[in-house]
Amino acid sequence: MPRIASAAHAVSQPHFGSVIVHICYLCDEYPPGAHGGIGAYTQTMARTIVHSGHDATVVGFYQTPEVTVSEDRGVRVIRLPHSPLPWTGLLVHSWRLRRALKKLDQSAKIDVLEGPELSLALLPRRMSMPKIIRMNGGHHFFAVTLGKKPRPWRSWLERRSMGRADAMCAVSRFAAETTRDLLDLGSRDIPVLPNPVDVSQFVCSQQVPEEGCIVFVGTLCQKKGLHELVRAFPAILEAIPSARLVLAGRDSIDPVTGGSYAAFLRQALGHLQDRVEFLGHVDRESLPRVLARASIAVFPSHMETQGIVIVEAMAAGKPVVISQTGPGPEVVDDGVSGLLCDPYDPGSIAEKAILLLRDFELRARMGAAARARAEAVFSNDVLVARTLAYYRQCVRDFRSALSHIPDSHTADVK
Predict the structure, then answer these.
(1) Residue 237 and residue 322 share a domain
(2) Tens digits of residue pLDDT in 46-97
(3) To the nearest 5 percent, what fractions of the chain are helix, strand and coil?
(4) Phi, psi (5° rounding) for residue 312?
């Protein structure tokens, strides 16, 4: 197990100097197993926090029959079971989460509690540590930006969660300002702290890229722009006969047919299926080898808040084609460290892919610029320092605000 138990007395007060501190992350998709960007972020940040000499715990709900506690490179991971009875999830989950955090805080004082948009909905308004929401793209964000109507129940929970946050940050300026407008957050300060990537895991290997290999990594679903990518593939093949498409990621349900989205893509490919490789879910340890195969990486998502795998491909030295929508211009310098495309236009996707596949020198130059940008802007070493500084400020602000609350109003802090 990590050092948390032995450090309990050392972190009884939230100091952020040489004294070890305890950060708790709320996350329901911590690897291994199927996970998205939040799971990847939480693992990278928690591991880096521990490597920096602090303590990190992850708490969340998983498909487990009972509470389990495990360790991942010094990170304590507490997996709570879902409620087994229908219509009892909110009540049971609220009780289990509060109980788990209280028990953890008693054994090793939590100095900062952080989670995504919905994560605080089940917690008290006041607790003994600052509660931070890190915007990775909540229900409102994706519903509205993808042209859908938010669900009332999810919207209520998200607003409730936001109301319980002592501080907020976001992975991109676009995510921060869009969420601010959608949820009427007013003038609250929302600093931007991009999702970090452990760039050391993606150091350019000796593996030679496969000529014409186009790699996509992510969940196979509609919003990732895969239908448009598949529709762009015939034009890419016509210009680059050696082209091959590799799709790595777990399957999802097609919202139109109710069946497998991978099956929908195969049907759309028709006779070109033999030029496309479906890898299924790829664990994080295998991801660098998958990216190493790529001549280019293409991510034509209809919407993202940042896109961790985009930065991972950049860290691997791959020229990327990504969406011009949302935070795309924040992630790459168009024409320097990547190319922006219209994710709804197969012609735009094909044009940018063909441009890179035809020009080896352009790929080499853009891949090197992508790696340099990943190191300078998105590396975990850079961002953990910024994040710890942000945590320090949140603790100072929280303690200052707490000192002005009358004793009669602090009964629910513990």
Answers:
(1) yes
(2) 999 999 999 999 999 999 999 999 999 999 999 999 988 877 878 899 999 9
(3) 45, 15, 40
(4) -65, -40
Q: N- to C-terminal Cα distance for the chain? A: 25
Strands (E), 112-212: 112-115, 131-135, 167-170
- The whole-number pLDDT of residue 86 equals 78
- In this predicted structure, what is the pLDDT of residue 204? 65
For 130-176, how does the pLDDT look when each residue is reduced to its tens digit (9 = 90+)?
Answer: 999 999 999 999 999 999 999 999 999 999 999 999 999 999 999 99
| Residue 99 token pair | 């109980």
pLDDT digits (tens, 9 = 90+) for 7-17: 333 333 444 54
Whether residue 334 sits in one domain with residue 186: no
- 209 vs 4, higher pLDDT: 209
Alpha carbons 115 and 28: distance in angstroms, whole number: 10
180 and 87, same structural domain? yes
Same domain for 250 and 138, yes or no, is no
Contact, 259 vs 253, CB < 8 A? yes
Tell me how far apart the alpha carbons of residues 171 and 331 are, in angstroms, rounded to a whole number. Answer: 11
Q: Do 135 and 170 share a domain, yes or no?
A: yes
pTM, to two decimals = 0.88
Residue 409 lies in a domain: no
For residues 177 and 278, state if they share a domain: no
Which residue(s) pair with 79 in the sheet? 60, 68
Q: Are residues 186 and 223 in the same domain?
A: no
Residue 310 sits at the vertex; the CA angle it makes with 306 and 316, to the nearest 5 degrees, is: 145
Rounded Cα distance between 320 and 363, Å, is 9
Query: What span, in angstroms and rounded, lies between the C-alpha atoms of 262 and 245?
Result: 14
Q: Tell me the per-residue pLDDT of 366-377, one tens digit each, with 9 for 90 and over.
A: 999 999 999 999
**Shared domain check, 320 and 225:** yes
The sign of the CA dihedral 326, 33, 265, 363 is positive
DSSP class per residue in 299-330:
E--S--SS-HHHHHHHHTT--EEEESSTTHHH
Q: Which domain holds residue 278?
A: 199-378
Kindly state whether residue 396 falls inside one of the protein's structural domains: yes
Which among 166, 194, 156, 154 has a CA at the least distance from the CA of 14?
166
Measure the CA dihedral 376/283/225/357, to 10°.
60
Residue listed under structure tokens 């859908």: 148
Q: Report the number of distinct structural domains present in the chain.
A: 2
Domain of 288: which CATH number?
3.40.50.2000
